[in-house]
Amino acid sequence: MLSEGGSFMKGMAMGGIFCLGLSLFGSFSPATEHGPGEHHHHHVKAPSKDELTRLSDGRVLELVNQVRVSCIIMVQPKILVYWATALDTWSKHCDKAVFYTSESSKALEAVDLNEKDDWARLCKALKHAYENAGDLRWFFVAKATTFAIIENLKHLVLAKDPEQPFYLGNAMKSGELEYVAYESGIVLSYEALKRLVNVLEDEEKCPERGHALWAMSEDKQLAVCLKYTGVFAENGEDSHGKGLFNSKSVDSLITDSMRDNPTNVVEGCCSDLAVTFNEMSPNQMQVMMFGVYRLRPYGHDFHDLLVFQPPEGSDND
């Protein structure tokens, strides 16, 4: 039997090993495979009004018609009310919206992946979206608890080439690993998704089920897999540098701004062209839908230079 002193020393040693493991994990940087035409910036900005005015009408129309978004929405029967709300609200503005579930539900239609593991389920959903992409070249991955304004997403990527590897949203950092927060929504270009699907076939680099001593969240695992292919997390911003992907609700962001920017609450809150919000109840999502798409001040013209038409056959607002 170990003495009390021996037990203490053993505990100290085990604790030291664990801390070393965490330190190594934080600085983990897989080797990357760079291809031609890589981009290395970490801030992706939406085009400014001045940039848009320099484009010909024909070029603007061409870009607007090219930017089409496939929405990959992850759901579970236990959050059925969020599932139903996403179906009834913002997902109608996607050019294609597919719900992926952990198990089938009689109430709502979705692709049943029959998979309990969150990371494995996300991998299967991304593979399915890629295999059924058709002519869609932008992919938006979100949970049903996220609220998205798809037209603002289209504005962000309007002049970006989907044949380049874009992986963007609310970029975060954990140790040396940069990743896009899942709760705020994740945007992938066709090239980034193609590379991801390819590396998912390599069990050593990107196992479908983690083999680590502790589990990583899905968004961090996604970043690790993409990093192997030379694709890095980038922060989506408006032309003034404000983040477009929010991990909080509008209510929370305004409350924070009232505390931090009491003399200019609206300006300090969030971008006018925000793409996502989170932590909203289903009722708040319905209110948000009304505010974004229906409520208008009479006689006020926003002079938008772009018009994104609703998807054909859509009954969106």
UniProtKB/TrEMBL annotation:
Keyword Signal: yes
Ranges that cross the membrane: none
Keyword Transmembrane helix: yes
GO biological process per UniProt: protein O-linked glycosylation
Main location: membrane
Signal peptide coordinates: 1-34
Subcellular location: Membrane
GO CC entries: membrane
Any one GO molecular function term: glycoprotein-N-acetylgalactosamine 3-beta-galactosyltransferase activity
Mode of membrane association: Single-pass type II membrane protein
Keywords: Membrane, Signal, Signal-anchor, Transmembrane, Transmembrane helix
Family assignment from sequence similarity: Belongs to the glycosyltransferase 31 family. Beta3-Gal-T subfamily.
The name this protein goes by in its record: C1GALT1-specific chaperone 1
Phylogenetic placement of the source organism: Eukaryota, Metazoa, Chordata, Craniata, Vertebrata
